[in-house]
Amino acid sequence: MRKNREASSVYSVRLPNDVIDKLNALATRLDVPASTLVRGFILDGLADSRGGDLISALDRLERDVLEVRRRAISA
Which pTM was predicted? Predict the structure, then answer.
């Protein structure tokens, strides 16, 4: 286990190929690994279901800033 990291587990989920294609395309556009993108979506969903927390809000803000930066550079 890495230093300063919580214990974690791998969770497998089945998604249609078109969803995987969309996730990969979005991850490429955002220049992040697809697994990081999916993990963020899951954490955001869990945070929203319980009212959210500061770390989740910061993670969401960071992703939003990256998306705005990507759009500004490509404009």
Answer: 0.59
